[in-house]
Every structure is written in structure tokens, then in C-alpha cells.
Design brief:
It is a single chain. The protein has one domain. About 60% of the residues lie in helices and about 0% in strands. The chain contains six helices and no strands. It has helices at about 1-15, 20-25, 35-60, 70-95, 105-110, 115-145. The relative contact order is 0.15.
């Protein structure tokens, strides 16, 4: 999401300002974006490592995660998240950076509205990548299962119980107590 949010911001400025996007970004206090790019690359590397670890675990155990959210919900959630990140970023820049438009003007002026369809596109990309990662992990889990065997995620697990002897009758164990009282 971090790399996609950075992509939404950069593409929005490129569309809104064209060849002047770089000078506009520096004039409006976007100096921190160079650090954001490094952070996004680091997070992508961490996500790649997490994917490799999940694949290895799935291969070792044969377990696969469930389906998760429907694709449309995943896409819409990612898109809304990216649009909210963009709006928050522009509003904060308006308050903290000199030369940046303040308030709604900072969000929508000079083609800022284009961030919303761009967020839909990047949201689709995020959803596709997440669904692809799920498919890769599931595939690794299927490869580890023996032929004819379902994964442990597909079959219900039962706790192991030791075999118990059949219960003896209450009378045989002398647990019945005393006899009923005699009637007078």
C-alpha cells in the first residue's frame, strides 16, 4: 500500500503539472518524498520476505489459508484506502509545508481530482498482487500434500483420545450405595 500510495501521489502530480511536476513538488514542500521512496522499497522487500516465509511454511505443513475477502471488496478497500491516504497527505502538506495550497484546494486543485481514478487503478493492482500472493501460497501448500491426501486445512482435526474401557455398571463397581429403607 505504501508504494501504491506513493504512486498515486506522483502520478497525480505528473498528470496535473506535466513537465513542471518536479519543480512544483519541490516548491510545495514535498522534499520528504525521496525518503518515502526508500521506505516504500524497504517495505516491498519486507513483504517479499514475508511471502517467501509463508510459502516455505505452506510447503512444510501443507496448510493453506482460506479464501479471504471477495476480490471486489479487496479492490474497493484498497482503492478507498489509497484515496484516504492521498487526501490526508495533501491536507497535512497544506498545514505543514509553505507554498502548498491549504484545505480542499490542496486536495483537488490543479488536477488533484485525478488522484481518485488513479487510486482505483492502483487499488486494482494491490488487490491483484494480494490475490496472486494467496494463490502462490496455496499452490505451495498443495504441492506439499501427498497424492490423494487433503491438506490439514481442508480436513477437520480431531483431538487424540486414548481408548477407554467400556464403562462398568454402577452395581459392579459397588457405587450404588445402600439399599432402600425397609417399609414399616
Amino acid at each position: 500500500m505504501t508504494a501504491a500510495a506513493l504512486g498515486v501521489h506522483e502520478l497525480r502530480y505528473l498528470i496535473g503539472y506535466g513537465g513542471d511536476a518536479g519543480s512544483t513538488l519541490s516548491a510545495q514542500g514535498h522534499w520528504y518524498l525521496a525518503f518515502a521512496g526508500v521506505a516504500a522499497a524497504g517495505l516491498l522487500a519486507a513483504a517479499t520476505v514475508a511471502l517467501i516465509v509463508a510459502m516455505t511454511r505452506a510447503q512444510r505443513t501443507g496448510e493453506r489459508d482460506g479464501e479471504g475477502l471477495p476480490f471486489g471488496v479487496l479492490w474497493l478497500s484498497a482503492s478507498i484506502g489509497l484515496a484516504l491516504i492521498y487526501c490526508s497527505q495533501e491536507l497535512l502538506e497544506g498545514v505543514l509545508a509553505s507554498g502548498h495550497p491549504v484545505g480542499l484546494a490542496g486536495v483537488l486543485s490543479a488536477g488533484g481530482w485525478t488522484a481518485f481514478p488513479i487510486a482505483l487503478g492502483f487499488g486494482l493492482l494491490v488487490a491483484l498482487l494480494l490475490r496472486g500472493a494467496d494463490a502462490v501460497i496455496a499452490s505451495a501448500g498443495r504441492r506439499s500434500a501427498k497424492p490423494g491426501e487433503t491438506s490439514s486445512a481442508a480436513r477437520p482435526s480431531r483431538p487424540h483420545r486414548p481408548a477407554l474401557p467400556p464403562p462398568a455398571s454402577v452395581l459392579a463397581l459397588n457405587l450404588a450405595g445402600r439399599a432402600p429403607p425397609a417399609t414399616s
